[in-house]
Amino acid sequence: MMKEEQKCEIRLSGSGGQGLILAGIILADAANLENKYVVQTQSYGPEARGGARRAEVIISNMPIHFLMVEEADIFLALTSEAYTKFKYNVKPGGMIILDEEINPKMFVTSVNPFPIIKTAREELGREIVANIVSLGVLTALSGILKPASLEEALKIRVPPHTVDLNRRAFQRGWDMGKERIKKKEVEKV
Amino acid sequence: MPKSFNVNKYLRKDKMPHIWCPGCGNGMVMSAFLRAVDGLRLDPDRVVVVSGIGCSSRISGYMDFNTLHTTHGRPLAFATGIKLANPSLEVVVITGDGDATAIGGNHFLHSCRRNINITMVIINNNIYGMTGGQYSPLTPKGESASTAPYGNIEPEMDICAVAEAAGATYVARGITYQPVVMEDLILQGIENNGFSLVEVISQCPIYYGRMNKKGDAIDMLKWQKENTVSQKAASNMPPAAVKGKIITGILSTQYRPEFVEEYESIKKVAQGVKYDERRAEM
Amino acid sequence: MKSSRKLMQGNEACAEGALKAGVKFFAGYPITPSTEIAETLAEKLPRAGGVFIQMEDEIASMAAVIGASLTGVKSMTATSGPGFSLKQENIGFAVMTEIPCVVVNVQRLGPSTGGPTLPAQGDVMQARWGTHGEHAMIALCPASVEEAYYLTIMAFNYSERFRTPVVLLLDETIGHLRESVDLKKYEDTRIINRPVPWEAPGQYLPYKAEGDEPPPMASLGEGYRFHVTGLVHDESGFPVAGNHAAIDRLLTRLSNKIIKRQEEITLYKEFMTENAQYLVIAYGATARSAYGAVELARKEGYRVGLLHMQTLWPFPEKLVRQKTLGKKTVLVPEMNLGQYAREIKKTVADQTQVVTLSQVDGRIFHPSRIVAFLRGEAKYAQVL
Q1: Residue C7 forms beta bridges with which residues?
Q2: pLDDT for C132-156, tens place per residue?
Q3: Coil, strand or helix: which one is A145?
Q4: CATH 3.40.920.10 at A7-182, yes or no
Q5: Torsions phi, psi of C54, nearest 5?
Q6: Residues B98-135: tens digit of each pLDDT
Q7: Residue A130 pLDDT > 90, yes or no?
Q8: DSSP letters for C235-256
Q9: Is C348 helix (H, G, I), strand (E, B) or coil?
Q10: Minimum mean pLDDT range among A41-45, B82-86, B134-138, B274-278
């Protein structure tokens, strides 16, 4: 009997320097820790800072052949530029997670805005952890991976002296996501 | 020169006759190099001679060491791999002016800069001989070559000055007219723990000489005698008398850390040996 | 229980494979998308007692690798398109002088600067014929991160076994891809070291071969004092410009030692080929898409299978003839305009039809194109 394929395609985007590729790697690491099949790819321009970056992660219970996201189950954007550039092919029933500072006029569909960058900057004191706040939100809303796996993956990938900060960032994101679920305010495409 | 020296023991005599023209300076450099090796009592099994492409680069085939005749311009890059992979080998690059300073110019700069313990002998005959007399970066401005039939408009380069500026820790210039001095300059180059350049001004009577009416080999050697002055002599001469002369001898030495030793030290860092322990071992 | 699975990048896996094979020397020059291989080895080689050096250019890197290999250590360089072009002359030197080394080319879209982060498979023919003159080449091509590890080991094995440079052709997709790998299963992979002479110095002829076998190789400094030259040479290693019989012997042997051992060098996988009417032949990132396409098409009832080539060169003529026999159509998807398809066509023209599905837009090959072709939507294909 053939197993039914359970696949989740995730596209993370933002500008260079926001750490979205690292976020993708952490997600992929977490999926690997749960013994799932996972592939992670990225696209980038010549700029190390600025521009629009995309990291993609596909998680499945079966071997993954096509390496690019075809229809995103989850699309996350931290900047308007990244949103505009990478918002294509989000699956009906999929989820869009945005930083709330992205111009609302651009929204052509149901989205889930969160104060991701603001939380990182003001509550955690370091804007650079916005990527990890994003992972917290994403993990809470999607339920595809266990938060413990994400925390384990964080430990592998972030510098040792920042583990604590990153853990708090993840927790903040997770709390924001869970709160939205409690209020039944999660929007799907 | 010790009387007992017998060049034959270092030669691959079955590879003779060599390809060099009568009057060529390459054999004089080879002989000086062999005397230097003999003087230093180097074990031939541990000597690696690397050459590039050109008349002078055929030198590697005639000497009974570990010899490598590489691609045009690249002998220093091959030599760098050899020296790094087995630092116990004595690595010498012998090549011509075109190979070393035109196509190989980049490798030359960076070998000087790294100060890797390799000795390089550039046999400078001011011309590409093997391909039939084209101008090189060391062909003096105004001279003729088969590709400069109306005179060379490119200024020549002072390769010794370049070497010093790039960081070579031993820079010397010899002439084929003075084989014993040349031998000593090469010997000291091998002894230097770092990158050593010995430029040897040599003669190509067949192409450079003929195209520029320099006479035969003897005339060209006489020219060397008349137009060079040793660094030592020059320091006691009025500047006007030195003007226009080519300075020979040891032109510069400086101390800088040697590259392979630096790498060995970095290996210890990578392997977690603490700084103090590294120093203790050095 | 702790799993042995690990998330790893293709380029990283290549570096790890090299370490497993026993690499002790790496020389390279920064270039996208191969740089991670250099970065990984810059960190790990000195720890393993080896040497990493960033040379002044690609040409120098190739030269340094050959020099290091002559001292008896396993050596490697990694680059991408423009750098691969620059290395070609010295790759030819390694072929001619039979010096083992591994050259990794993480293909990007060319020609010229092209697309540094865009995937392509445009260097398949360059891997085969990039350097001048008649010669044979070995080129391997992984389609996953795990294969990048395994095939790097095999690249070293073949280079040592046959005393020849081996090209490992990654592509941008596989080089930058991260996925789970389980390297434990490769723990017992056999590691091959070059044949060494048993004769005493003095009796050793560095290029004396038994038939088409590669000759034993002494290292610099061991007392053999041999000569190495890129000129045509005889068994003694010295130039023989006038000896046409010796030249013929040398060039023929250099080719035969590889071409005649095609079967020993051919690595491949088969997927759903039982009772297949159609056969897809693919390699690298495109093979990955082809697995998906074959699975999809089988569900739709098409009798299609996949021959996934891991060895591209020497061209596995016998295998390709045998596997394509009786097939209605052979489909060759490639991120180029049919470089490998032409080779296949040349080999099997008398027995089956070859169709190329090509793509040069800087995106990886989509499985739906293969399925579309099977459905009869021929606009997706070009018949060679």
Answers
A1: C180
A2: 999 999 999 999 999 999 999 999 9
A3: coil
A4: yes
A5: -95, 115
A6: 999 999 999 999 999 999 999 999 999 999 999 999 99
A7: yes
A8: TTSSB-TT-HHHHHHHHHHHHH
A9: helix
A10: B274-278
Mutate to test the interface with C, among B49, B80, B259 (most CBs of C within 10 A): B80
Instruction: Please choose, from the candidates C141, C111, C112, the residue with its C-alpha nearest in 3D space to the C-alpha of residue C124.
Output: C141
Cβ(C312)–Cβ(C140) below 8 Å: yes
C-beta of residue B118 within 8 angstroms of C-beta of residue B79: yes
Which DSSP category does B145 fall into? B
Domain boundaries, chain B: 7-256
CA–CA gap between residue C168 and residue C155 (Å, rounded):
7
Which residue matches tokens 């700084």?
B275
Dihedral of the alpha carbons of B246, B250, B253, B259, in degrees to the nearest 10: 100
What angle do the packed helices A147-157 and A20-33 form, to 10 degrees?
120
- With bands split at pLDDT 50, 70 and 90, how would you rate the model's confidence at B274? low
* Contact between C37 and C28 (Cβ < 8 Å): yes
Give CA C110 to chain center in angstroms. 18
Q: Which residues neighbour C245 within 8 Å (Cβ) at sequence distance 6 or greater?
A: none
HSE at residue C125, side-chain half, CA atoms within 13 A, is 14
Torsion sign across C-alpha atoms C259, C264, C265, C271: positive
Question: What pLDDT does residue C378 have?
Answer: 67
The boundaries of every CATH 3.40.50.920 domain in chain C are 269-383
Q: Cβ separation of C288 and A67 shorter than 8 Å? A: yes
Residue of C5, C180, C288 best to disrupt the A interface, most CBs of A under 10 A: C180
C5-186 placed in CATH 3.40.50.360: no
Q: Is A39 on the interface with C (CB under 8 A)?
A: yes
Type of residue numbered C205: L
Query: Region A156-173: what's the mean pLDDT?
Result: 96
CA gap C250, C209 in Å, rounded: 10
Q: State whether residue A99 is helix, strand or coil.
A: strand
Instruction: Report the percentage of chain A scoring pLDDT > 70.
Output: 96
Q: Which pair of structure tokens corresponds to residue A61?
A: 């219970």
Domain limits, chain A:
7-182
Residue type at C206? P
Q: Are C64 and C223 in contact (CB under 8 A)?
A: no
Could you give the percent of chain C with pLDDT greater than 90?
96
Residue among A33, A35, A38 minimizing CB distance to C179:
A38
Query: What superfamily does domain B7-256 belong to in CATH?
Result: Thiamin diphosphate (ThDP)-binding fold, Pyr/PP domains (3.40.50.970)
Report the alpha-carbon distance of residue B22 to residue B216 in Å, rounded: 10
The number of residues in chain B equals 282
Give me the CATH topology for the region C269-383. Rossmann fold (3.40.50)
Contact of B128 with B154, CB cutoff 8 Å: no
Please state, in angstroms and rounded to a whole number, the distance separating the CA atoms of residues B41 and B30: 16
Chain B residues with CB under 8 Å of C28 CB are: none
CA B216, distance to chain mean position in Å, is: 24
Average pLDDT, chain B: 95
pLDDT of A104 over the 70 cut: no
Note the residue count of chain C: 384
Average pLDDT over residues B220-249: 96
Within chain C, which residue ranges are assigned CATH 3.40.50.970?
Answer: 5-186
Q: Of the candidates C178, C366, C367, which has its C-beta nearest A25's C-beta?
A: C178
What is chain A's mean pLDDT, rounded?
Answer: 93
pLDDT in tens, C298-316: 999 999 999 999 999 999 9
Task: Kindly report the pTM of this predicted structure.
Answer: 0.96
Tell me if residue B255 falls in helix, strand or coil. Answer: coil
